[in-house]
């Protein structure tokens, strides 16, 4: 009821977030989608033109296939399309949560009320609804893929994973763990699904967009703005501590720009490798699937509040003790307006990354269960 009321309230405004999907789909249908979409100025102007608003958005760092996400809504005006998008995304999110809860109930491990409330009422959920971001749909797809893997439905899981990879480049860590466990059938279907979507849109876009995409992502990650604390990533943390910028990060804690990229990359790579090694010996799929969800967020170079709705998956699958749950809940619930916007200078910035710490704690809990399963 709370979420539905908030969605209805949010439907009346036009913000960044949804307009990016809507404008991209409009450009796809009109044959105007091409490399210029990765030019923030050009795409921002198209957003304003197509939504008849003053709101600007960017297309980068999304793949060209992201333009499919709002395709069913291009026949509507922007305000009506946003309302339908919010209702559909909330329904998809609730369905994903319900599926995870039903699975745990069937395993005689009921989801504690506190965990369920945290899954449903985390700030990441409300942020997605407030701005119309697409990560409630991403969560629903990830949950469906996870549940299909738990139930041995490899083909359905492959389709879900392929959609995740094609639409939002989400689930890369899951690909690594599935390869470690030699689940080739799932990966084959995922690759086929992603390729079908890529080929399906190619006649309607400037094909140069595919060659431009990787270099644009690298350029986006290198932007000084990625050091702001709104980006709750391991790379963002080290850049904020180490790399000075007069506009985006005037007061770093240290002068260590040379190691910021290297250390953050090594941390994520080692975590992924360790998870893959332990996943091979695991007897319970819940453990490595929980790890895959956390790493799928932790491995992305640009992650903000909306992405952390995926943490509902490890919350549902892991067996957390009271102390762990209390700390993780505090980190997922504390308003970023208090932390990420207040603690920006020097070493105080270590207090500005609660979502990032929550994800790493959930990953650590999944590793503990993986080690226990292996023994």
User: What global shape is seen?
Assistant: globular
Taken in chain order, the helices and strands follow as HHHHHHHHHHHHHHHHH
Count up the domains: 2
Helix content: 55-70%
* Biggest sheet layout: none
Round the mean pLDDT to the nearest integer and report it.
Answer: 92
| Strand segment count | 0
Q: Determine the N-to-C terminus distance.
A: 44 Å
| Structural class determined from secondary elements | mainly alpha
Radius of gyration: 20 Å
Question: Which segments are poorly predicted (pLDDT under 50) over 5 or more consecutive residues?
Answer: none
Content of β-strand: under 5%
What's the helix count? 17
What order do the helices and strands come in, and which of them pair?
Elements: H1 2-10, H2 18-30, H3 40-51, H4 78-106, H5 113-121, H6 123-131, H7 135-150, H8 154-168, H9 172-180, H10 184-201, H11 208-222, H12 234-242, H13 257-281, H14 285-298, H15 312-317, H16 322-333, H17 354-374
Helix pairs in contact: 1-4, 1-6, 2-3, 4-7, 7-8, 7-14, 8-10, 9-13, 9-14, 12-13, 13-14, 13-17, 14-17, 16-17
Can you walk through the features of this model?
There is one protein chain. With 375 residues, the protein is mainly alpha-helical. It folds into two domains: 1-222, no CATH class; 226-375, no CATH class. Helices cover 64% and strands 0% of the residues. It has 17 helices and no strands. The mean pLDDT is 92.
